[in-house]
Amino acid sequence: MSGFAFDEIRREAEALGPWFHNIDLGGVVTAPEHFLGDYPAVKWRRFRHALPADLRGRTVLDIGCNGGFYSIEMKRRGAARVLGVDIDEGYLRQARFAAQVIGVEIEFLQMSVYDVAALEERFDIVLFLGVLYHLRHPLLALDLIRHHVVRDLFVCQSMQRGSSAQLHVEQDYPFSEADVFDYAGFPRLSFIEHCYAGDDTNWWVPNRACTAAMLRSAGFAIESNPEEEVFVCRPNPGDGHPPIFPVRPRRLGNGVSA
Ligand SMILES: C[S@@+](CC[C@H](N)C(=O)[O-])C[C@H]1O[C@@H](n2cnc3c(N)ncnc32)[C@H](O)[C@@H]1O
């Protein structure tokens, strides 16, 4: 912990709110009333064993890092470099403050997942937690991540609804086969036209079979599924779809590409 006084942390945490991530900043908790409890600590406890305990010398990209909870956990495991990106500058301000109070060095950058090619860098571990269903173009995002930024491990978590059964999907079906679409374990992505859970950024909610199928289709081999919503993957060499956008990184004036 750095040398912030308790009252200073409390005041600043309040000014930066509301928080989605509940983080303990020297006794000040940032989202004590979270509707999912002590979130995301309760989630993390269910899959943390599936990631390497020692991340020394490894690089991590946390896409949709929010208030920085997972970026901080990666740094606590000794990661050499952690970059957190998010489209929301308000959340990034929270993340910078949390990292500063806890005393860990993490880079935070405002960026959309659709622009990850601009990083022109691969990371040993890429976290993509709780973002997939917030996207209008989830497969495009997975294709871009697979193609441009994952070197070794890809950890994806999505809200899921519907059956958690996973049907073995055949390579092909005859045109006359219609029943399979009604099977509980068939990959299904539900489109939210308006709003779900009061959040109009929830667009597509997969069932468990669909999360797995989309990951495979984007060129990932699923190594484990330590928690119903969490998939630990590695790139399948030579597999995946080249993303249709952007074909190659575009240079911006500030040295960063987009
Ligand atoms: C439900 S929160 C998940 C936060 C964190 N990864 C976790 O699992 O606790 C979704 C986050 O994704 C971010 N986000 C949404 N769309 C994004 C996009 N296109 N690119 C990057 N981040 C995005 C939001 O700003 C928000 O911080």
List keywords for this structure.
globular; single chain; Rossmann fold; 11 strands; binds S-adenosylmethionine; seven-stranded mixed beta sheet; alpha/beta; 258 residues; two-stranded antiparallel sheet
CATH topology of the domain at 54-166 and 181-235: Rossmann fold
The percent range for strand residues is 15-25%
Q: What would you call the quaternary organization?
A: single chain
Low-confidence stretches: none
Instruction: Work out the radius of gyration.
Output: 19 Å
Task: Kindly provide the name of the CATH class of the domain at 54-166 and 181-235.
Answer: Alpha Beta
Structural class: alpha/beta
The biggest beta sheet reads: 7 strands, mixed
Number of helical segments? 6
CATH architecture of the domain at 54-166 and 181-235: 3-Layer(aba) Sandwich
Average pLDDT metric: 94
Order of helices and strands: HEEHEHEHEEHEEEHEE
CA-based shape: globular
